[in-house]
Amino acid sequence: MLSRVIRAANKRLTNIWPVKFRRGRLSAPVATITFDDFPRSAWTAGGSVLERCGVRGTYFVSAAFSPERLRQGPASGIIQGLEYYQLEDLAAAYEHGHEIGCHTFDHIRVPRLTDLDLEESIARNADFVRDCLGDVLMTSFSFPRGAVNIRTKRLFSKHFAVCRGTWPGMNSGWFDLSLLRTFSLDPDFDQRVRLSEAIQKAKATNAWIVFFTHDISQSPSPWGCTPQLLESVVSQLSEHGIEILPMKSALARAGLG
C-alpha cells in the first residue's frame, strides 16, 4: 500500500514539476495529432484520414518496431496482433509532410536506464532514421509508455525542443516543454473527454491541445482508435477554426522553437 502511494506521489510530482518552462505566445489555439510506436495502420488508415482532412501529424518512431528488428523476434513481424510500419510507410509519411519524432531506439521505459544508456538509445534511433530518410533531425520526443521521471525529463529536454508524455490536459500560458500534456484517443475517449468543452476551453485560453493514439482500425487496441473517431476529432477541431499542426510547427507557432 505504501509503495503504491509513493509511486503515485512520484508520478504526480514528475508531471507538475517544470523542467523546461516557457511562456507561449499563441494568439489562437492550435492542435496536434500524434501517433506512438507507428503501427502500420497509423499510416495506412490514420494517415488517410489526415490527408483527406488536409492536415499533418507527428509520428513517433522507434527502431524497435522496424521490419529488420521485428524479424529478430516474432517471425510474422506482428506484436499482440498489430502489424508495425514498413520502411516505405516511414518514407511516405515523411514525404507527405508529416513530422517524424523520436521514441527511443528500443522502446524502453526510460526511468529504468542510466543517462549513458539513454544517450546511446537516442543516438542509435537518430542513425536509424537518417539511414531511412536522409539528413532528418528529430526535434520532438515522446516517452515510451508514458514512463518518465524528473531526471529523464531533464535529459531528454537537452536533446529535443519538446517532449510529450501521457499526462492528461492541455497546454496554455506557461508550457512545460519537457512534458506536454495530452489527450489519449482510445476506445474510452468519448466517455472520458467532452471534446466540445475541451475545444471551447482551448479557444478561450489560446491553448495548444495535443492528442495521441496508436493503431487505427475498426477494432483498435486499448491504445488506438477507430478511423471514425480520429476523423470526428479532426473535423471538429477544423470546424471551430483550430489549426492542426505537427508538434514542431505548433512549437514554432507558439514562439517557443
CATH A-level architecture: Alpha-Beta Barrel
Total count of helical runs of at least 4 residues: 11
Low-confidence stretches: none
Major beta-sheet overview: 8 strands, parallel
Strand content: 15-25%
CATH topology description? TIM Barrel
Q: What's the total count of β strands?
A: 12
* Secondary-structure element order, N to C: HEEHHEHEEHEHEHEEEHHEHEH
**Structural class designation:** alpha/beta
Shape, please? globular
Rg, Å, rounded: 17 Å
Helix content: 40-55%
- Count of domains: 1
CATH superfamily: Glycoside hydrolase/deacetylase
Mean pLDDT: 92
- What's the CATH first level? Alpha Beta
End-to-end separation:
43 Å
Any key phrases for this structure?
single chain; 257 residues; alpha/beta; TIM Barrel; eight-stranded parallel sheet; two-stranded antiparallel sheet; 11 helices; 12 strands; globular
Overview of the molecule:
This protein has 257 residues and is of the alpha/beta class. It has a single domain, classed as TIM Barrel. The protein is 41% helix and 19% strand. The chain is built from eleven helices and twelve strands. The strands form three sheets. Strands 2, 3, 6, 7, 8, 10, 11 and 12 form an eight-stranded parallel beta sheet that branches. A two-stranded antiparallel sheet has the order 1-9. β7, α7 and β8 form a beta-alpha-beta unit. α3 packs parallel to α10. The longest helix has 19 residues. The protein is globular, with a radius of gyration of 17 Å. The chain starts with a helix and ends with a helix. The relative contact order is 0.21. The model has no long low-confidence stretch (mean pLDDT 92).
